[in-house]
Each structure stands twice: as structure tokens, then as C-alpha cells.
Amino acid sequence: MASSPPPFSCFICLLWLSMISLAIVSTNATPPRKPIDVPFSKNYVPTWAYDHIRYFNGGNEIQLVLDKSTGTGFQSKGSYLFGHFSMQIKLVPGDSAGTVTAFYLSSQNSEHDEIDFEFLGNRTGQPYIVQTNVFTGGKGDREQRHYLWFDPTKDYHSYSILWNMYQIVFFVDDVPIRMFKNSKELGVRYPFNQPMKLYSSLWNADDWATRGGLEKTDWSKAPFVASYRGFHIDGCEASVEAKFCATQGMRWWDQKDFQDLDGWQYRRLLWVHSKYTIYNYCTDRSRYPALPPECHKDRDI
User: Fold this and answer.
1) Bridge partners of 178?
2) d(Cα 141, Cα 133) in Å, to the nearest integer?
3) Helix (H) or strand (E) holding 269
4) Which of 84, 275, 233 is nearest to 164 (CA)?
5) Are strands 157-163 and 79-90 parallel, antiparallel or unpaired?
6) Of 100, 174, 187, 254, whose CB is crowded by the most CB atoms within 10 A?
7) Backbone torsions φ then ψ of 128, nearest 5 degrees
8) Mean pLDDT, the chain, as a whole number?
9) Cis check: omega of the bond before 223, within 30 degrees of 0
10) Rounded to the nearest 5°, which phi and psi values hold at 8?
């Protein structure tokens, strides 16, 4: 004899319990460890145009200044293999067309590895573009471009890179906007044996940065100023001769929670890509008629 269906109110109860369960799962993401704010001089040194770097609050905040004579930049004191690297940046406000603010890791040889954030300036009223790229063994051409869901010139926001043996993830305020999985089994090189320094710079790139170089830098708006604070580095420091940093299983970023994104993070990644992506090399069939092999694993196309 078939049992009677439960009362309608029980369906509501079950639905309510299911929603609670989903909510618990959806908020169970494992974000990278919270960055520790430190003074600029703890982890970084200027690299060029020292007089175009301004220091505030005991070196806990700096500004990079770009004028018609020069831009400027800085680099980390150490070189690193794997870790979590974060910077709080307030980008150049107003008419910043032609300018680029960059935050990236890079090794130092011809077949270099590189992990890039580049913030491409805009004409007043147009949104900033965040370009990311990954170079492995000297090969790049893996650009993605996104708009942001906020005005990055109004306040500080966190831009961070998680890099381990399994994946590279670009985060904006703990929201993943891009991942690059280790696809060595597909014949794709992955950064694992070349120590990298961190760099940041503010410079003029009006030959390509804004609308492919159509929008030129308006020097009447100079000086252009980008502000920084945070200066967080939590990585495995290595000498430039080091081939490998044996941290597997010993550092928090090596643990299982950080070998892939979890469900909540994947949903946020897909949200970013559905609403804010304006270019993804993985979907550029005119440039890549065959899907690049790593795009099969990245799961963000």
C-alpha cells in the first residue's frame, strides 16, 4: 500500500532545512590566510626613480608618481618559490588613460616565469580594466581581461596571488577572478623551479594600454598617483640559484584545501567570468583555433 504524501507544511520544512544546508556549504570556503600588514621597507625596496615614491605613516603607505619625465617602481628584497602575495592598492583616479599600474611576480632569465596583475588606465567615466597573464618557460600570451564590480580608485582593495604546486589563483578581495591549474600532464609548463621576485610599477604605456593605444596619456592631468599599503608576503624564500623549495605538506598553502577551489569559490569565479570578463584567450578562436590545452582544466571558460 502506497504511503500518503507528507503534509505540505513538511515540504516547507524540508525545503527550509535544505536551504540552510546549502547556505552552510556555500559559506564554507577556505580563503587564503589573512594578509598581515607590514611597512614597505620590511619586504620591498625601490628599483628606479626613487624620488617618485612618496612615503606616509612611517612607511606603512606609499604612493607611486608618474609624470612626463618618468614613472617608478619597487621590488621585493627576496625571491620566492610558492606562497601567498597580497597588496592593497588604490588606483590612479580620474583620467588615467595610457597609464599602467602593475603588480606581478617574475623570474630573471630568458625563459622566465611570470604571474601578472596589470591595471589599465581609462578615460574619465570609463571602467578600469584588470589584465592578468601567466608566463611559463618564457611563453605568455595567456591574457584575460576583466572589469571590476567597484571603482578601484575610490578606496583600497586587496589584490593577491596564491601560487603552489597545484594552481595559481588571482584574487580580488578574496574573490577568485582567475585560476591557472598545473597541467604538466598535458605538456604545459608550470612555474615550479624558478624563484621569482615581486614587482610593482606605475608607467606610461599609451602605445597599447587604453583601447589598444588609441587613447593617449593626457599629460595635463599629471602627476598620476597610485597608492599602496599592506605589503604582505608569505612565501618560501629561496636564493636565485635554488631549483626547488621543498614546502610540500609543511606550509598552509600546500594543504588539500588550497589544491583546488571549493564550490563557493568556483561559483564566484563563474560569476566574475559571466558578468565582468571582456577577454579570455581560451575563447579567442581567431587567435587560437585549437583550444590551448591548459584551458581544458582551468574550468573558468
Assistant:
1) 170
2) 7
3) helix 263-275
4) 84
5) antiparallel
6) 100
7) -60, 150
8) 88
9) yes
10) -55, -35
The 10s digit of each residue's pLDDT in 95-140 is 999 999 999 999 988 899 999 999 999 998 899 999 999 999 999 9
The span from the CA of 162 to the CA of 189, in Å, is: 18
pTM of the model: 0.88
CB neighbours of 6 closer than 8 A, spacing ≥ 6?
A: none
DSSP state of 95: -
Q: Judging by beta carbons within 10 Å of its beta carbon (0-12, 13-18, 19+), is residue 234 exposed, middle or buried?
A: middle
In one letter, which amino acid is 28?
Answer: N
CA distance 286 to 8: 55
Q: What percent of the chain has pLDDT over 90?
A: 75
**Can you tell me the distance from the alpha carbon of 226 to that of 88, in angstroms, rounded to the nearest whole number?**
11
Give me the residues paired with residue 162 across strands. 84, 169
Task: Check if the beta carbon of residue 174 is closer than 8 Å to that of residue 162.
Answer: no
Q: Would you name the residues annotated as active-site residues?
A: 114, 118
Tell me the per-residue pLDDT of 36-87, one tens digit each, with 9 for 90 and over: 999 999 999 999 999 999 999 999 999 999 999 999 999 999 999 999 999 9
Q: Give CA torsion, residues 261, 267, 270, 276, to 10 deg.
A: -110
Residue 205 and residue 55 in contact, taking contact as beta carbons nearer than 8 Å? no
Four-point Cα dihedral 109, 228, 35, 28, nearest 10 = -100
Unique residue bearing C-alpha cell 589599465: 120
Phi and psi torsions of 287, nearest 5°: -90, -40
Beta strand ranges found along 136-181 (DSSP E): 144-146, 157-163, 167-172, 175-181
What are the cell numbers at 108? 630573471
CA distances (Å), 21 to each of 24, 138, 210, in order? 5, 46, 46
